[in-house]
Records
---
Amino acid sequence: MTSPVILTRLSTGVTGLDTVLGGGLPEYSFNLIAGPPGSGKTTLAHQMMFALASPERPALYFTVLGEPALKMLRYQQQFGFFDASAINTAIRFINLSDEAIVGDLDLVLRRIVDEVTAAGPSLVFVDSFRSVMLAGVAEGAATNQLQAFVQQLGVQMTSWQATTFLIGEYFDDAEANPVFTVADGIIWLRQSMQRNSMVRKLEIKKMRGQATMAGLHTFRITSAGVTVFAPTPAPVADTGGTASTEQVLSRLAMGVPGLDEMLGGGLPNGYSLLVAGPSGSGKSILAASFLAEGARRGEHGVIASFEQNPSRMRNPMLADLITSAPVSLVDPGSRDLSIDELLVLLIDEIRKTGARRVVIDSLSGLELALAPTFREDFRESLARLVFALTVENVTVVMTTELEDRYTDLRFSPYGTAFMTDAIIVQRYIEVDSRLRRMMAVVKLRGSSHSDELREFTIVDGQLRIGTRLEAQEGLLGGRPTRQRSDAASRAPGRNGGDDA
Amino acid sequence: MPSSASRRIAAALESRTGPDADAFRVAATVVAMWRDIEGQLTPIIGQGGVTALYGRSLYLAGREFPWIGSPAKSVAATLDLTALHGALALQSSAIATEGGAALLQTFHTLLVSMVGGALTERLLHDVLLPSSSGDAASNPTT
């Protein structure tokens, strides 16, 4: 009778990494953590070690040449995961620089095996393995000797029931290297430079026995350690219809008198709304009113703000809501952002608070916050963002800067109109030598809505929607003219929402 | 006012030398404590790392106690504890105790500045524990 061995998978303790690995790290696997200097290899190894090691599952960390152990400890002890009380109980560091400097691979292997035999660790780390190999090369060790060394080490560690990590500096993943062949898993760390921006990326090049998430995944190193931003599910084709008509059971009040009526009774639950308009037109106020209305109804909200200084909110109403807690502020804080990182932050907050309303203010600011390497496919990234938020069953309002152009009619930048369920456009118009504001609902998927161009004002930080701009024509051209009297009395109509 | 670590080092040294110890016994005890430190840290940061820290401690403590010695001119492979023993044994018991404790204290401060207090405490905890038996004199190391 044959029954397959069920591989135990270890949780790495690195946010997002288990997901990318396809469910964790197989126990007793022989892994390589590779990448150029400064890419975070040692930090990743330490974070996993402190998460996994315990007195019952002890770890041995062999330091070879390369970074002096004292400096390594100096920098690692500043991370939140570093637990000094685990040293010499769950974790033991062993310095092999004396053996490595001689350049005798057999001596290094013997010492590792002796220590492993004596301690019986469940986890073994060798940092940096590149140093071991270079030491071998210095002594003229042939490639087959090196391969034999690595294979012996792999066999020894697996036989001793230890999950092993070799940490090494490698620049070229295309190089033929015996370690790559022998390793069960290869975690490759990279640093992508573009202009003055640096983005860290991680790739699981190989992990025997399980399906990993392919591709490069962004990660960040903070005082807490490494966080990997595992991708959210990719949108299926034609994701524009993010919420089907059948799902639209309820509508959310917008918090702006008259706007719900324009939307045919409010914004359908689960929809994404794009509010586009020129600078200062009132987009952020509309978005803040949406959150304030939610707060009044006991619904938690989340806002991702990309203002220059989110702590000094220009909108006092929103600042109050954030201070008094019904609205959570997601502040990505740093530049060189990726959409995956923003999504992780947003979704964490949504799940933590049970939020139903989400605001992204603004897409223009978000685009600037993204690392240049991600700006190139901003449209695709936005599609993923909208899709992922829709999966969370929240209703999303996004604002976007839209330069007033009176020579053509545009409702959204980036060609994003198709990916949102609803669009409200705000514009400036000149009437009687005054700059006035107007807004219109130009799209509401699967629902009837007003087709009126309504004037609005901002009074005490609130939007006041006025009446239809009667007796004017050519409003979208920015400089309307008075209609002739026979046309002025035409009744307001409604759109059928046939753009679904 | 002496720091807590300084008091602990002085207490550990006094506990290991025992009462009315002469300079020779103080020297043997200080060297024994250095052997303990070496044994504790060498597996972790390597012999070279311990020797470098010892050399720096000698240099810093030597400002106040010039007789205590100076770091090796070239990069030393190991701790020259014979020289330290000789320097301490030539002093009076009180001065040897003061200088030996100051050297250990300097090393402790240096390690704290490198890897933080929590990790230093973890690494040197056993070394700084006052001995119950005061065994240094019966275990000369030079």
---
Amino acid sequence: MGTIVTEETYSVQAYPQGTRRALLINPPVYDAQYWARWSQPAGLLRIATLLKKKGYQIDFIDCMETDIRGIVTKARRYDVNGKPISVMRDDITKPIYHFGLSLQELEHRLRYLEEPDEVWITSIMTYWWESTRDVVALTKRLFPKATVLVGGIYPTLAPEHAAENLGADLIFKGEIRGASQLPTDLSLYAKPPSYAILATSRGCPWDCVYCAARTLNGGARVRTRTTQDILEEILYKYEHLGIRRFGFYEDNALINREHFIEVMKAIIKSGLPLELYAPEGFETRLLDEDLLRLMKLAGFKKVHLPLETVRSDINRQWNRRHASTESFEHALKSAIRAGFRPRTQEINAFVLFGLPDERLEDVIDSTLYAHHMVGSVIPMLFSPVPSTQVFRKHSDYLLKEMGWDLQALNGKFLPFLEYNQRSNPGLRASDYLELEGLMSILNEGKVLSRAVDLCDDSVVGLAFRETLHVKEIHVMKSTLDESKQYAYSHCGIRLG
Amino acid sequence: MLASSAKIVQGYTPETDPRRVLLFNPPVYDTRFPWSHWQQPVTLLKLATLLRSSGCDVRLIDALYRRPDEKLTRRRIEVLTRGEVSINYWRFGQLRFELNTQLNGWQREGWQPDEVYLEGFTTFWWRGINEAISLVGEKFPDARIILCSAYPSLATEHAVIHSGADIIVVGAIEGLSGLPLDLSLYPTCPLFSYLSIATGTGSSGDLVNEFLAKANTKNEQERVRQFAFADHDVIHKYPEQFRTLLKAIIDRKLRISLYALGNIYPHDLVDDPELASLLFRAGFKQLVFADDRDMPLTEEAREEQLESYHYAIEHCVNAGYRWRTEALVGSVCIGRPDEQLEDIAAFITKVAHVTGSIIVVPYQPSPNECASDLPLEHQNGKLFPFAEYNGKSYRTYQDLLGLAAVLNAKYRSHTFDFLGDGLIPHLVRSSIVSKSWDPRNTPGIQNDRPVIAGWFNKEGKWVRS
């Protein structure tokens, strides 16, 4: 059983230069799918900066380091009997892969290292905890004298689970504030990455029911880094590592809008030819044309808008009172006026699905709305995250009734499928797969870089709609079997 | 360059006395080059077989050649505009300096061709031919330049004036029927080869031998794994030879992949239900069906085509093909004069429902179909030369291409069926038809508060923008 420590009970000691050795590891991932884009272990790389300042010698292994094509290796996972591991959900089966460095390769690399005094392991998604456990076991076996410490999102959101299951000595819950404001140390990579992750601020005043930001940040207070500090990090990475692409990872970068504007102006003034992204999106209400123009000038290539749902009542249920389709459209128009082109992936919209009590027709309405408005739909399959309101509300169902552990709460495995089947018995897991497919293929209709709009009133749009209409009339006239009728009526389909 | 001395020859017979011959497949100028993988200078490669068997010293420059791991090079030449749409016009293929380097090398070693053959695959690619001829003309001014294939045959006058060739061959070159393609002139063996069951000397026995030679060679470097038939309407034109060949492939258990690239019609499979199984067992990995350009633009014809597709796909799925994957691809011709785009949009949606995957093939008019003042390169079907005649903009055709792209897009190797019977297609149709996705149209779901754009200031107070 590991000991749970926090900022208040644990501090990183300073040592004479080079007298203390730490090994930092970003573990592999066990999952059905993995997107390697923007997946640098930023927290661990900030810890590296902190430890170096404290006199540590650092060894670093990122098991998820991509190759030159941006791809992480993958291999099927097998159980102890040599049987390939799959997750079966209703009428679909998803094979599970080991993404990243294999444990054998990791062991091979670890054996070449000098024994560390401390092993720092980051653990990101709560449903990836098993690979962290395996890396802890490996380091414990190879370096029995070292203190093994696990930090990151998982131990912060589920510290008791981590203490009980990982086998680590220390479980760090929460933020190591001394590291939060520091730059990531990308010099630890043998070949510098092609991008860097940046943070200008931490914290968000909102409390959306599915979001864990409050727990991760120890409250709703928003803290910002100084503009000079941010610019120095960019400049260093640009000049010394040749990095031009930066991804802002923020809880809500625009809450302190004036600060963000200051950062944009400083970047513009620097004259650096940067490519900037914020893959997690910006709060739409806080975006306006002037700010978007500044962002464009600073080097933003894309804008991500968190639509999530088209329905205002659902937004209210999710405690997203700050979000609306009006503010979404306002942000969209501002982005277009600022020079971002719609229907080209320069403007993108997130759509959230897989939540308890959702109606598929609402998800499809949201998908088609996003398709019509911006042309690029980014599907976000919902994972219930410990500490969030949704998780707390449904923890009895997820953990007791279904008997699941955290690895089963991966959105890709549809943890609320059975729950939603209670009110919609005709719902199948394959319906979710098809829904994902719809979101994916809608983004594919690009000709001369412009995505077609199947919902507009163009000649083609109208003809397409008419064809679907004729089919619907045919469906209505034909005899539906009882289960389908039930399913349709429970999804609120307008058959009449 | 004016080539008034150019000689037009109908049905040219190549001279086969031993000589030095350069075969030159020119670069391509176009807005898109979607099937570049399948582009092979069939006529030149047959010529190579003929000429080499007569003792000629033959060399090949295929400007479209690249190694399997390389991408085809393209350079933007200009930007065309059609209404509000800007269209990039590209030059595809090895760069001019690369071609020059190759020719310079031969010149340095003292190799000068007596004759240069160029293949003009299509009329609107004439700029590539012009470029290749001027390049060859500079290096080898004494060589006789012979231009063959579709461009000189269909736009003879244009070729006389603009190509720079000495001999303009109208119609097919004599003596090539039934000859195999000589792929040994390539630096590395191409991934695929065309086969031709042409009339004349070739028999199914020859074809089987050609197959075996390419697919069964012990030299891995020269072994071809992918084959496509070059013959149009192959099943209808060569029913016995085609079946004999497939049976021979099955009997010999050849591990090859075959591709039907628009030369099998859905009704071929309706007429002979056993054929689908034969195709599958022989190794046909993908059936891209022939498009409907020869059918009238009527609702009845479209219904008939859909019915043919319905039965053809059923036979194919029963034979082992996976539905809604890229194994079975329906084709619809777009851009024909007098077509109603609304009908075409509906038709491609229905074809995609039946076949799973779909491609749309722009109608390519012959030069005499277009207005005489329309430059040849602008008669390119991809630019939809009949758009204005049909009363539609290029943007509308772009939408049609976009619709086809969505219908053909794969997720986990499968297309989405908008006309399917499952829950999701039903919900999608319901949302699109009723426009329930639009918050303005659906009482109860629209946001009832006006947008309040603003932000928190440094004191943490909300400031309206």
---
Amino acid sequence: MTRRLVHVGIAFLVIYGLLFFRLEMVQIIGAGNLREHPQNTREITLDFDAPRGVITTADGKTIAQTVAVSGARNRLRQYPYGSLYSHVVGFISAEHGGAGVERSHNNFLAGNELSVRIQDNRDLFVDQARTGQLKLSIRHDVQLVTRAAMAGHLGAAVVLEPTTGSVWGMWSTPNFDPNHLSSHDLQAATTDFKALDSDAVRPLTNRVEYHSSEIGSLFTIVTAAAAIESNLHDLSVSSTTSFPASQRSPAITNQDGSACGGTIKSLMVDACVTGWATIGQEIGREPMQDISNRFGLVGGDPVRTDNALRRDLKPTKLSPSAAHAAVGTAMELTPLQVAHLFATIANNGSRIQPRLVEQVRAHDGSVIHNFEPNVLNQSISKETAAKLLGLLSENVKTGTAQGLALSDVQVAGMSASRFSGSNHLWMVALAPVTRPEVVVAVLLEGDGSDDQETGEANIAAITRRITEAVLRLPNSNLRGS
Amino acid sequence: MNNQRIVELTLLLLAAFITLATVAVAAVAEGTSIEWAVIPYLALLLLLWGISHLSLRKWAPTANGLLFPIAALLQGLGVAFVLRINPDLLLRHLVWSLLATVGFIAVLAGLRDLNQLRKIQTPLGLIGVVCISIPVILKITSGEVNSSPSVQFGSVAIEPSHIGTICLVIFFGAWLASYRSRNTAEYLGEVERFDGDPSRFIPLIGAWLITSVVVIFQNNLSSAFVLVAIFLSMWWVAVGRPIDLVFFLAAVGGSILLTVGSVAEFQDRFDAWADPWSNSQFGEAITRSSFALAGGGLTGSGPGEGAAGWVAGATDQFAFVPIAEELGFMGGAAVLSSYLLLVGVGLRIATAARKEFESLLAIGIAIYFGSQAWAAIAVPLRFLPPGDLSLPFVASNGSALFACTIALALLLRISETVPVIPDRTQILSRISFKSQDTA
């Protein structure tokens, strides 16, 4: 009996050993991953009642601040512009975590970061709120323009400065008022959060960063880049109405069933899908994969702003057939990725990480942390970039993006629409062509009531309005702070 | 006064110190507010420990001195967290502690000879079966979809299954002891041999039925794990036929597989275990537990610096999480070690017990503590699907505390019957001392 009792003892030692091992895995070895997990709201929940720095735009408008109130909790987080910045600053709530910059830069705002906490040697002994103040790259004027242009439409728009990667405007509809979620009335906040969270149109999702849609013919700009690099830009494709099917992939036909062909310039202005498929076949899959890699479209995590959280966006893959890859079949990107792609072309092929946060400042205004523009790589040569810009400019003059043309500035741009199975639309504008200062990418999620032509007219009007307005804004606004 | 009680008193003082220190450190932490009103509660808790210690001195002076301080430390840690997470539970917890102490003293004072329990083994077994199946009966009669195994009496919820498990352990121990004595009698030729008697398997079949009821109607794999662990350990030690274990495990496995396919809630719990990230009903507590544990790290966030009430059920089935979060891996490992020590001491008592019934009872109780703690800690660590099992002694669940304290008293009573045999070295020193004296 004693011997068998020892068996029982050993069995318990073993299963408790498993617990020790697993506890170590969770608390020590796997702890780093868990702490950065997108669903992890522990840290921000802990910081809800703590002092918190303000968030300002590049032109000095305060868009999030903590004010003193009376009551059980004596600090309230306020968002003076409400839903205007809902997808930029996000929110912080007592029970539902947070989102946006509030969440991703929580350590700076709440002063958990050592560089923020110890701002000055003397501060160690002074009981003073040590918080970091964030200055974003978002411009209040651009954001207002974007919101006005997007009024009444479901979708997203993003405005990038190509030379620095700064996000000037970031707008996604539908959205929400973060003031409701940061409320001290926890019951009301919970009701609001649940309603927003279960809403089918997903108002809590920042579509600019987290909503991928098929980009279709927008991808042909990458195919054009590959063609130029492979010295195929003078190749003239014979005119056809369809690209033949192979045993593994279906045939590719032009949208209106017409025949088209020619050099890449005429393919671009005619949005000639069959022609691009032929070019893709000619280039081959390897170079297509290679250039997509250099543009950061495939392989690794999708491009986000420096502050975005790790989230399970599935990595984009190139279609296995070169012809289908060339016309962007199954290529799904977020508006930010699209803007980033065209900003790379606008910036002479130099790819810069999009950034939303420019500076972290101490309570006395001194700069603690500067997020400089971060050059990722030289995706394509300057010459190739210039040729692509020429193509895009031609596309606005005589091609499919004529709705973007402005009277006094030359604009380059591109559009994509008429997807099978989805009625969303894309439009990108770069202006001015000679030295692009702004890239605007717009995604409209068609609501089904509009026909495609109205939709195309709408998106062109929206994109043109944003581009025109941003170009006219005085740059001095930036020095307002 | 004998050594065991002195050891006990010393360790009890240590447990009291750790409890008060945890509360005090949390009280000065930033952002926590601890009411002054908790001081009388803590004082009363320490008073209850003192009374238990004194009653041990009176009625079980030679009982093991480690068991009670370990249980007290775990209970004190539990209280130190409950008073911050949900101070409203404190009063009820204290009333239950009071009841548990009364039960503890009653067992020590009233049950001088454990053989008295063997006389009432059948009623105890019946009580055990009824207590465990009460939730099932209620569920069937009221038709409500509620897997919680509690019975409401006004505002007080009682979970009879905890005390039912203890009754079953006593019954099973008594039955196995008589089974063994009858076997021995057959072997010695004192009674007629009766091979293939089907009644030998009745307890095992009964154990399987009870486990299946828990699985099917309570959808609770943790409770089933505890029952299986107790039955298997006791059966293995007493009977020692591997084939029995195989059959039993296969039968229980069959019940579980059958239930997974047919009961939606059980399926939900399984899904939460397989993928907690996308299951909001049961998964959220598990993912939050992982995040809280990860936030604690090696040394923990410190008492009062964690997000203690963030995990739902942090005072009951997830009571381990805030402890391991704020005291870190080191604190969590210390709690795990305490339970392991409890099991070890229990098994040690079983080997030293003079009667087989007492030995089997000690095994049953030790495994009851060990497996229940294991199952409760295994849920946040994703070893078992979510269940509603309270962490022994730590959880604020009163019924569980009551049952565990009664079981502890039984274990102490068993350890007390072990005669103290002086070490041979002590005899030697006495001899040499004498010889020096005469020289």
---
Amino acid sequence: MSHHFLDVADLCFAYPDGTEALNGVSFRLEHGEAVGLVGANGAGKSTMLLALAGLVLPSGGTVNVGGTILAKNTVGEIRKRMGFVFQDPEDQLFMPTVFDDVAFGPLNQGLSLPEVSSRVRESLEGVGAAHLSERPTYRLSGGEKRAVAIATVLSMLPDILVMDEPSSGLDPKGRRLLIELLKKFTHTRLVATHDLDLVMEACPRTIVLHEGKVAADGPSREIFENAELLERCHLEPPLCMQGKC
Amino acid sequence: MGRVDPSLFSPSYAQGSGQSNRPDPRAFWIVTFAFVLTVTSFGKYEISRLTPLFFYPVAITTLYGVSARSLLRKALFVLPFALFVGLFNPLFDRQALLVVGGYAISGGWVSFFSITMRSLLAVTSAILLVMTTPFDRLCLGLEKMRVPRVLVTQLQFLYRYMFLLRGEALRMVRAHDLRAQGNKPKIALSTAGSMIGLLLLRALDRATRVHRAMLVRGFDGEVRVLQPLGFSWSRDGVFTLAWILFFALVRFVNLPEWLFGWVVGK
């Protein structure tokens, strides 16, 4: 199982208007690690995730997913291994019913019908949404949409899960369920979020991005105890460390 | 934008369960196409010969438990367009064609009524198609009938994202109304222009994000779905043939005249 690692080396990306979103980002995620990716607005988190999935082509540096280097001809292979959960589940759910949406990935992988059905069932059960299977995707609540969006990715059996703001728009119970789910997963996880309390609970390690660079990388508690670092990166300690909960 | 009756764009109630007794979508497509073809093939002064065709919407509404009220409401929404098409006929075609109770009716009025009837019939049949069969099954039916996949995929996405677009438009109108004056604020033309432009930009952004979400899940241009269709000759074949025969009968035999003759003769 050693191929479930993600190695990013000296990644650079600049938008056509010249804005440097990523400026030499390097880190490595080992098999099964859960890592929070935090940073202020515009720090480069979303661009980072897009670059990992090959949705924007970096201008320099390498992304190595389990031994495969991201390039134009390996994008398909990389995407098979990496499950990507988008910030807005409305973007992720585009098929008529929940079942069809969860089946979309496995069908594209060319699996047989019984295999696809069992994958869909298992993924929906995994996120507690088995009862939604026949529902149209646009009729779900925010929490249900999020759960199904995660299931759409789980059904492809990815080695690595990448999530962009998974707790945004969730009510407290939905958020709690998400945290429990994240803790339960055994995949290598990279969670980009502003929800620092979620990171404290679900990710033992944190990477702080600031102005397109890695400002810090280490155990979450240590990072969030470093007041000077947080101040510099326009962050605050999680509420649970401010004694507010 | 926000004043359009939302139910017009609501998904059909025919979603998911309770579909087993309904004909295969391919049968429905063929019958609807044949119906529209029959309706439009009549001459411009035909009125009485069109009347038997009303049997089709009535039968489908009754057979498949479609709400007649909802069907009519949707059909009436399109009526003004039909009226507009025939609006000038009475002005240009003034020659008397019929005399009813001592009043001469011009060809223009007759063709105006005929156009209205034909549009109502055609529109009703199209609405019935969508109301009786879930949209995804209709698309699947099209695909099985070898309609180019790119068109079917576009239809699927149009349907899925119509609701999102509607939601965005409604939110925009609400935001406008909350900051505008009066109880029922009107949107100024210049504001409407920029709102529509913004809606287009948002739609483009959304399309990019959706496309990305599809790419990362292995999309290669083909939308694969797990819903096999089964065309049963005893159910769908009979359904299709029976209706086509009926339409042919209405088209080539003057049923109202024959019926009238039969009743009078008796």
